[in-house]
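User: My collaborator and I are trying to settle a disagreement about how two of our proteins should look. Neither of us wants to argue from intuition anymore, so we agreed to look at predicted structures for both before our next call. Could you fold the first one, then the second, and keep them clearly separated?

Assistant: That sounds like a sensible way to settle it. I'll keep them separate. The first protein:
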Amino acid sequence: MSQNQVLYMAKEAVGAVFLVGGPILGVSLLVGLLVSIFQAMTQIQEQTLSFIPKVVAVVAILLLLGPWMLSVLTAYTTNLLTQLATFGGL
């Protein structure tokens, strides 16, 4: 395996991670920010108030985007296994 092949596989892995993890992290960040603003405005300092909405939002985004995420991961895995067979000379 050459250096270019390894770099290509690493680039594809990072791209798949960003595609799959980005929406989950973005929604979690947005919900956490909104809850923090709400807590600052009302001066409520309850720890579970920030945790429960994040969990609900992450579950909702997984239900909504789960099939797309699965297709991205399936395409990446298929490409990876095809490339490994090509690089290995099989």
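The second protein, kept apart from the first:
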Amino acid sequence: MEITYQRECHPDLGVSEFADLLVRSTLAERRPIDDPGALEAMLRHANLIMTARAGGLLVGVSRALTDFSFCTYLSDLAVDQAFQRRGIGKRLIALTHQEAGLATTLVLLAAPLAREYYPRTGMTRHDSCWIIPRAPKIQG
């Protein structure tokens, strides 16, 4: 089946479709899929979303924040497990960087199981990343 790639934005890429892909990719383990409001905000505020579709089915997504000049933070890279090992993730990374501008530095935090994947995409490891973990959402 042919894979088509395109730039999309919210609301064209909906919360339920995004959440479904996160589950099919295993990225749901590290994303707030039980919080539709958070997922909606993640899509609404991302300023660069690239998708991969097979016959209309969302099989890959790259969700990034960029200034289109200096830095691009690739927050989510998800590929349906049934479509992995076909170059979809590598292509989404390349398209994201191209759309953001090749003069930007593309940065991402790797999921634990994906650490060995990213060197195969042409990315290099950086040894000084610092984070403040996200606080649990207060139920109210």
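Some points you might bring to the call about the second protein. The chain has one domain: 3-112. The chain is about 25% helix and 25% strand.
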